[in-house]
Design goal:
globular; FEMABX; 9-stranded mixed β-sheet; Aminopeptidase; 2 domains
């Protein structure tokens, strides 16, 4: 049968996502509603009448010229080891060029390496270890190396490889995940390090209560989030972003997004959002106050989310991005230590890849985004 690429309906897109055990929430049709500055389009690869791939493309216009960057965050959803991968990606580039794209950025959801918690812990204690990428991985994925070679031969470029940061930081290349498949909840709890187990008990003894909230609780979450942003030195998103996310994702599936709130004696101390697609659960955004840290609300809220993910039959609980650096002077190392305490594993993906369709415009867009 002849392979072709065509726009697909929201229903077709969701049906394809539902046929897979896992797909990034950034590849859901609803995600396009969360990003008002980008124009979304659902695309599908068809082999005859059979849908064999799908992708959410977000178009970001370059001001004043009517041309756009085409971005597929953590996608598209393809068989990345398919013999006809080159044909599939050529169809994508042809379609996006016809749509006025001057460049394409995508993030194949393909794992390259894994480091278990003990390996990461040892690396953090090693004064000679500078970056996680320099530490011998506990698992290597041969399919990832083959994919990287194929992409390079096609002319795709990795910003990380050539020293460029691309139009933005993009999606994290390194994440931390807790495998849940085939494990009882008691086994998951025993996998936590001693400090985590101790902190969970402290929170329980202190009377920390973790409950699920709803859209009306987002302002409370946001107040803590702004405090967290100031403390951890990042630029916060506006409240409207989280309200759009809640509306879009829960309209698509009422259980897609959850909000958790940790209270102690009437005080809201921590809050976090959780997103579920198939067997994959993400800890999406977290926030906490500097007050009453001794009652350990962050450990309490994470344990509740882990427990709920396990109850829902998740295969993996994803704590999202971690730093590659092991330098103690980097303020993000503390977050890495916190996530390592879950007993999970650090995971490296093949990362995001660029294809400039018009190199001059692509470079101009990179400069524009770097100055925003």
């Amino acid at each position: 049968m002849s392979l072709r690429l065509t726009p697909i309906t929201r229903e077709q897109h969701l049906e394809f996502v539902g046929s897979r055990p896992s797909a990034s929430h950034l590849q859901l049709p609803s995600w396009g509603e969360v990003k008002p500055d980008w124009r979304p389009e659902s695309l599908g690869w068809l082999d005859g009448d059979r849908l064999v791939g799908a992708g959410l493309v977000l178009f970001r216009p370059l001001p004043g010229i009517g041309r756009s960057l085409a971005y597929l965050p953590e996608g598209p959803l393809l068989d990345w080891s398919a013999p006809d991968l080159e044909q599939r990606l050529t169809l994508l580039l042809t379609h996006l060029r016809a749509r006025g794209a001057f460049g394409v950025k995508m993030g194949p959801p393909v794992v390259a390496h894994r480091w278990d918690a003990e390996t990461v812990k040892a690396a953090l204690a090693d004064p000679d270890a500078r970056r996680l990428s320099d530490v011998h991985a506990t698992a290597h994925e041969p399919a990832a190396a083959a994919l990287v070679d194929r992409l390079r031969r096609m002319g795709w470029r990795s910003p990380r490889a050539d020293g460029a940061d691309g139009f933005s930081a993009g999606q994290p290349r390194y994440v931390f995940q807790v495998p849940l498949a085939g494990r009882t909840l008691d086994e998951v709890r025993r996998g936590l390090n001693q400090q985590w187990r101790r902190n969970i008990k402290k929170a329980e003894k202190a009377g920390v209560k973790v409950v699920q909230g709803d859209r009306d609780d987002l302002p409370g979450f946001y107040e803590l989030y702004v405090e967290t942003a100031a403390r951890d030195r990042f630029a916060p998103r506006p409240l409207a972003y989280f309200q759009r996310m809640w509306t879009a994702l829960t309209a698509e599936d009422p259980g897609r997004m959850r909000l958790y709130l940790a209270h102690h004696e009437g005080d809201l101390l921590a809050a976090a959002t959780m997103i579920t697609v198939g067997e994959h659960v993400w800890y999406s955004y977290g926030a906490s106050t500097g007050r009453k840290r001794e009652v350990q609300p962050n450990n309490a809220i994470q344990w509740r989310m882990l427990s709920d993910a396990h109850e829902r039959g998740a295969a993996v609980y994803d704590l999202r991005g971690i730093t590659d650096t092991l330098d103690e002077a980097d303020h993000l190392v503390g977050l890495l230590r916190f996530k390592v305490g879950t007993g999970g594993e650090a995971v490296e993906y093949v990362g995001e890849w660029d294809f400039p369709l018009n190199r001059l415009l692509y470079r101009a867009f990179e400069l524009y985004m770097s100055r925003r």
